[in-house]
Design goal:
The complex is a heterotrimer of chains A (about 400), B (about 525) and C (about 100).
Chain A (H helix, E strand, L loop, with lengths): L10 E4 L3 H12 L4 E5 L14 E2 L7 H20 L11 E5 L2 H16 L5 E3 L1 H7 L9 E5 L3 E2 L2 H14 L3 E4 L3 E6 L5 E6 L2 E4 L2 E4 L5 H6 L8 E10 L10 E3 L2 H6 L10 E4 L5 E4 L13 H14 L7 E12 L6 E4 L6 E5 L5 H18 L39
Parallel strand pairs in A: 1-2, 1-12, 2-8, 4-14, 12-19
Antiparallel strand pairs in A: 3-7, 4-6, 5-6, 9-10, 10-11, 13-16, 13-17, 14-15, 15-16, 18-19
Helix pairs in contact in A: 1-5, 1-9, 2-9
Chain B lengths: L16 E6 L3 H12 L4 E4 L47 H13 L4 E4 L2 E9 L8 E8 L2 E12 L3 E3 L12 E3 H11 L6 E7 L3 H9 L10 E7 L3 H13 L4 H19 L4 E2 L2 E7 L6 E6 L12 E4 L2 E6 L1 E3 L2 H5 L4 E4 L4 E4 L12 E3 L9 H18 L5 H28 L15 E3 L4 E2 H9 L5 H7 L12 H13 L18 E2 H5 L19
Parallel strand pairs in B: 1-2, 1-6, 2-3, 6-19, 8-15, 9-10, 9-15, 10-11
Antiparallel strand pairs in B: 4-5, 5-6, 7-16, 12-13, 13-14, 17-18, 20-21
Chain C lengths: L9 E5 L2 E5 L5 H7 L6 E2 L5 E2 L12 E4 L2 E5 L10 E3 L16
Parallel strand pairs in C: 1-7
Antiparallel strand pairs in C: 1-2, 3-4, 5-6, 5-7
Classes of the chains: A alpha/beta (about 400), B alpha/beta (about 525), C mainly beta (about 100).
Chain lengths: ~400, ~525, ~100
């Protein structure tokens, strides 16, 4: 096989979405020589088909929250240190409760989160109307989480990649990894591409929903499945919303493993004065079509909460594939069965939020040679026992990580 | 959890109609009438309140007749100012045939739905997969509705192509087709001093219509000139081809048309110039003047030849682009064929796409003119009828064979026009870095060129890196422009730029209509799981 | 008298001003006939009017009876319609027949 001529590479990162970009960023910051390969163009996968919300309140466990907290803090730093703008803003987010029951449940949750240091306040009636004038006047109330933030995922992906490149990373777009070659002792020896092999002793698989396909080539069965989400984009509605909105059932929808959930409204203004509206969740394989049923459902939910949308139109839509994992925690770290192979995927709908901490954990493993902080929470080998006809699995004999209390 | 279903809707109760025809231009009319004649239930939909498409627009100012969608009845009398091609020129064969078809609409055999937007088209599997129905989502009169049909004929026509230049977004700059439609249907002239520029034979009827005083007695607009980007040899080749085919009635017709137009322009003393390009539109808030340069053989402006022409209307057009978005959404395989105007669905000999039951006809199948559209509409309808068991395979074959030669001739002529009068490579020189290439989102060529240089070499990549294609037109205007820009910057073929993805709605639909609907004829919208359907 | 078979003109309201319209006219035709070429302003404040005339380009957007972003070239004028544009430019042009 031909070897792609390239300067000495310490780590190959497969996948140019936000997670791969964050890995490249932190790996280069640790002084490693990184080569990132992306089969299409940067952010061409799920990173361009999502909203850009960085949330704490929708995390379903103490572990998820710990990760989110660390990662969101990193985003705030990055928003200042990255050369390119990523449209980071922290206006908080409003969680809307339609009914008194929903509000009560939302307040219970807010209290739990408050014990973990996530601040909030309840708004209702006139105070809510003044805070967010476009809301339907008949809502029971809302919880405002001032610590929630947002950014533009595509700009952020690009900014991280450019920063990594300035530190010497090479980014090869249009180059797909077709497999991995193992060497002596079952160690990673190279990434196989259509244009030849790239020798590497460390490979990070950050290919989102396409990660499982790559790791399968060395007999590793990643339990990551695509979970489709659909988003509508409205016609221009300048000044309609001051804060991102989520309805109170959003968190349950996020944590659900049902074949298909109903619509759980999310609304986020864009820099172009349009409104992104989601969200749906369903297992539909790798299909990225948008169903008319989803359009109707999201539109109906949106108009219920934002009656002024009756003046506007649904302009377009798109679908993205969230990399779902069975315990809703990402898989970040070394694959015990294949020394030198690392995975960084399984973020479901929190990929944007958790990208920096993911990159940091990966860099900690590869540069530091041992488990960095928080790595324990996302160890890939917690899915031990997922055997496929006797081939290598993620790990041997370790039990799944117990969740520290329900959230 | 709350209301709202993300999964499939309940199973349908049977098709809303047998054949659903999208677009009521010549192809759609021919298809609808042929399908009705074959005894099928037919629904004919068009976004416009009037039937006829761009080709058969008709209006009679003097008699005050009008085309009123609320009556679902059309006046088929000839407009007093002349027929569809204006200036007292007698109607073409295609126009006569088309007007006869329009008359058939009022007979009631066709369920004619004007003012109806088709915003989604998908495949639906019913209990017997062999008889898969196609689901169609429509918006009309403030409400959405879901329909299903045994066959869909997409006859959505084509839209104009453009070469942008500085100032092309000024009010007063419009497409040649817009000027023609305003004149034909509303008796309006776009300005007092009109310049017509671009490429291709379509500029001629526009020029003639605008230069001719209309029947209501209003003074003719002064058409200051017709500026053809191609050089004389292109026209000579065109003429030679028509002469060579002069045995065919259609070719004779076209030759006669061209001669009559040129004679009419000469009578009206309208200068017709070859090898010219518009390099800028100037004005404060509206068009006031146009700068024009002579071009070299490649279409590049020749330095020192620029002149500034006062004008308050500039009508531009560079050929036609097939409206294939619905076919793309339905997953029809497509190919890039410059001879047919760009991306077109792949079809078999009976105009069926790779999506069973989805047919295309007319300019949507490839830009080849009204005669081809009429013939294809009829063929597609019979093919649909055959699929639904109303017409035998033998009869269908007979129809196909009988009209094959005229269709082939039309396609050959269309191919000639589409290649001879395509935007020349040198037109890129007119697109300065501050020229807008995405009108909706106001993205300038400089930003796009920088993105291309940074590696964004497909339309999708450009859409991720800039705001192109994210506005309400969904890339209809900028898509072909960007593809040529990428090809010019990268030295690659235009098709390498790919296409923008298509998702529903293919055109914007008001929230109120989407939010309030429990679909009237519930349609299940199942797609086979497929990788990144675009 | 307007509104009769011999004079079917009716009024629509553009930015509050009564403008004559005839059955079968699109809003674009009505506006152009009245001498109004600018239908809206873009985000960066640039004027836009009719461009493609056939519903493909989405430049000619106006608000109709409270519904935003309607294509003037595709919307038939109806009696009493309330239309908001970016501006109502100038006055009617010289010459009969509605040349714009």
């Amino acid at each position: 096989m031909s070897h792609l001529g390239a300067p000495q590479t310490d780590v190959v990162v497969v996948g140019g979405g936000i997670v791969g970009a964050a890995c490249a960023y932190f790996l280069t910051a640790s002084g490693l020589r990184v080569r990132l390969i992306e089969r299409d163009f940067p952010a061409s996968g799920t990173s361009r088909a999502c909203d850009g919300l960085l949330l704490h309140h929708d995390k379903g466990s103490a572990a998820e929250l710990a990760l989110a907290r660390a990662s969101n803090a990193l985003w705030e730093e990055l928003s200042r240190s990255l050369d390119a703008g990523i449209e980071y803003r922290r206006q908080g987010a409003l969680v809307l409760a339609e009914s008194a029951e929903a509000l009560a449940a939302a307040q219970v949750r807010a209290l739990e989160l408050d014990r973990e240091g996530v601040r909030s306040e309840t708004l209702a009636g006139g105070a809510l109307r003044e805070f967010e004038p476009a809301l339907a006047p008949d809502l029971a109330g809302a919880i405002y989480y001032p610590g929630e933030a947002q950014l533009d995922a595509r700009l952020a992906t690009r900014a991280l990649l450019e920063a990594a490149q300035r530190r010497g990373a090479t980014v090869d777009a249009g180059l797909a990894a077709t497999g991995l070659r193992l060497g002596a002792g079952g160690r990673v020896a190279a990434v196989v591409t259509a244009a030849g092999e790239i020798a590497a002793e460390a490979v990070v698989c950050a290919a989102g929903v396409w990660s499982a396909e790559l790791t399968r080539s060395v007999g590793v069965d990643l339990p990551v499945r695509p979970r489709k989400g659909e988003i509508l984009v409205t016609s221009r509605v300048p000044g309609l919303l001051r804060h991102p909105l989520l309805e109170s059932s959003y968190t349950a929808s996020v944590q659900s493993a049902a074949a298909a959930t109903g619509v759980a409204l999310v609304a986020e203004m864009t820099a172009g004065d349009t409104l992104l509206l989601g969200s749906t969740r369903q297992f539909a394989g790798f299909d990225r079509s948008v169903s008319t049923a989803a359009l109707h459902a999201i539109a109906a939910r949106a108009v219920r909460f934002l009656p002024a949308l009756a003046r506007a139109s649904v302009m377009r839509s798109y679908a993205g594939l969230r990399p779902w994992s069975p315990d809703h925690m990402p898989l970040v770290g070394p694959v015990a069965a294949v020394p030198g192979l690392f995975v960084a995927t399984g973020h479901e709908g929190a990929g944007i939020c958790l990208a920096p901490v993911t990159g940091q954990i990966i860099a900690g493993w590869i540069a530091g040679g041992r488990a960095p902080a928080l790595a324990e929470l996302v160890r890939p080998e917690r899915f031990a026992g997922e055997r496929t006809s006797g081939e290598a699995t993620l790990g041997e004999g370790t039990s799944p990580l117990p969740r520290k209390g329900r959230f | 959890m709350n209301a709202g279903v993300a999964g499939p809707l309940p199973a349908p109760q049977g098709p809303s109609t047998d054949v659903l025809v999208v677009g009521a231009g010549p192809a759609g009319l021919a298809a609808a009438v042929a399908a009705a004649d074959a005894g099928l239930r037919v629904m004919l939909l068009d976004e416009s309140p009037v039937a006829g498409g761009q080709y058969l627009a008709a209006y009679s100012a003097a008699a005050g007749e009008h085309l009123d969608s609320s009556h679902q009845h059309l006046s088929t009398s000839q407009p007093s100012g002349g027929s569809g091609n204006g200036a007292g020129l007698s109607p073409t064969r295609a126009e006569r045939f088309g007007h006869a078809l329009l008359g058939r609409l009022s007979a009631g055999a066709v369920d004619w739905r004007p003012g109806t937007l088709v915003w989604s088209l998908g495949a639906e599997a019913d209990p017997a997969p062999a008889c898969g129905l196609l689901s169609v989502a429509i918006y009309a009169h403030g409400a959405t509705e879901h329909l299903s049909a045994g066959a869909v004929i997409l006859a959505a026509g084509a839209r104009e192509g453009f070469v942008p230049f500085p100032g092309w977004t000024l009010p007063g700059v419009m497409s040649a087709g817009a000027a023609q439609l305003l004149a034909k249907r509303h008796g309006l002239k776009p300005g007092r001093r009109v310049l017509i520029a671009g490429s291709g034979p379509l500029l001629l009827p526009v020029a003639v219509r605008l230069a001719t005083p209309d029947g209501a007695g209003a003074p003719g607009t002064r058409v200051v000139g017709v500026l053809e980007a191609a050089h004389l040899p292109a026209w000579l080749r065109c003429g030679a081809s028509l002469l060579a085919g002069v045995a065919a009635a259609a070719d004779r017709d076209r030759l006669g048309e061209a001669v009559r137009y040129l004679a009419a322009l000469a009578r009206a003393r309208v200068p017709y110039r070859f090898g010219r390009a518009v390099t800028a539109a100037l004005g404060d808030g509206r068009l006031e003047a146009v700068t024009v340069a002579r071009t070299d053989a490649l279409g590049r402006p020749i330095p020192g030849t620029a002149e500034t022409i006062p004008a308050d209307a500039l009508c531009i057009g560079f050929g036609l682009v097939p409206n294939v978005e619905l076919a793309q959404l339905a997953g029809a395989a497509s190919l890039f064929d410059p001879a047919r105007g760009g991306w077109v669905p792949e079809t078999d000999a009976f105009l069926e796409t790779s999506v069973p039951g989805l047919f295309v006809a007319g300019e949507t199948a490839g830009v080849a003119g009204a005669e081809a559209a009429l013939s294809q509409g009829r063929l597609a309808a019979l093919a649909a009828a055959c699929r639904l068991g109303r017409v035998s395979q033998a009869d269908l074959q007979r129809e196909r064979d009988g009209s094959a030669r005229e269709r082939a001739a039309a396609l050959r002529f269309g191919a000639l026009i589409n290649t001879l009068f395509a935007p020349p490579s040198g037109c890129q020189a007119v697109i300065t870095d501050d020229t807008l290439v995405c009108r909706c989102e106001e993205v300038a060529a400089g930003e796009v060129r920088a993105a291309i240089a940074a590696g964004a070499v497909t339309l999708d990549a450009l859409k991720t890196r800039t705001r192109v294609g994210q506005g309400p037109c969904q890339g209809r205007t900028c898509g072909p422009i960007l593809a040529r820009l990428i090809a010019a910057e990268m030295g690659t073929a235009p098709e390498a730029a790919g296409r923008f993805g298509v998702r529903p709605p293919v055109k914007p639909v008001p929230f109120a209509a989407l939010a309030s609907t429990v679909p009237a004829s519930p349609a299940r919208d199942l797609r086979p799981a497929r990788e990144a359907g675009r | 008298m307007p509104g009769t078979p011999s004079d079917p003109t009716f009024a629509i309201y553009v930015d509050g001003q009564a403008i004559p319209a005839r059955p079968g006219q699109t809003l674009a035709a009505v506006l152009l006939a009245a001498g109004c070429q600018t239908f809206r302003y873009t985000r960066s404040g640039k004027p836009r009017g009719i461009f493609c005339g056939m519903g493909a380009c989405f430049d000619c957007l106006v608000t109709v009876d409270g519904l935003a972003d309607q294509r003037a070239c595709m919307t038939p004028a109806q009696p009493g319609m309330q239309v908001q544009t970016g501006t109502l430019a100038g006055g009617p042009p010289a010459g009969a027949g509605g040349g714009a």
